[in-house]
Design a protein that fits this description.
It is built from two helices and 14 strands. By secondary structure, the protein is mainly beta. A four-stranded mixed beta sheet has the order 11-8-10-13. The protein has a three-stranded antiparallel beta sheet with strand order 1-7-4, with no helix packed on it.
């Protein structure tokens, strides 16, 4: 199913006895099964395997039908969101002017977790507490939603201009 990947495959029994001429048997390195559909599977799947017996050979009469067990796990994917930036902690009366309005944020997680993200609820913060008037390079940050890992924000720093509070005209 979309968003899942194969974690492991096991076949029981893992060995089969084949009968045939020495020449035919010498050329065999493996015996495979017919393809197994994983459509809509999201967990462990155990199904009978249909062996594809190599030409000029046959399975020994006591050979049991194998069971193929496929363990699936949620795939970990990356997705990039373009998000707005917002200043926080600017001095009272001052203005904080980011020189870019948006940044690219890459998050890592399962398909379900990434699909649950509402980009409209995410804001990248430019923390400017303690910075005086002038131009500053600020590292953006994001409160990462649960179940996701922040891979990176690009650009890695954003230029902000902090303007001082307006001074009242002299009387």
């Amino acid at each position: 199913a979309p968003g899942y990947e194969i974690a492991s495959v096991a076949v029981d029994p893992a060995v089969i006895t084949l009968l045939g001429s020495p020449e035919a048997l010498a050329a065999i390195t493996e015996v495979v099964t017919e393809p197994i559909s994983l459509a809509c599977a999201t967990a462990t799947l155990a199904v009978p395997g249909v062996l594809v017996i190599p030409p000029d050979t046959r399975a020994a009469s006591e050979a049991p039908e194998p069971t193929v067990t496929v363990n699936l796990r949620a795939a970990i994917l990356a997705r990039t969101f373009v998000l707005a930036v917002q200043c926080a902690g600017e001095p009272v009366g001052s203005a904080c002017l980011p020189q870019v309005g948006q940044v690219a944020v890459t998050l890592l997680g399962t398909l379900a977790a990434l699909d649950a993200v509402d980009p409209g609820t995410l804001t990248v913060t430019l923390e400017v507490t303690g910075l005086g008037p002038g131009t500053h390079a600020v590292v953006p940050s994001l409160a990462t939603p649960g179940g996701l890992l922040l891979v990176g924000i690009s650009p890695r720093s954003v230029t902000v201009v902090i303007t001082p509070p307006a001074t009242p005209p002299a009387a």
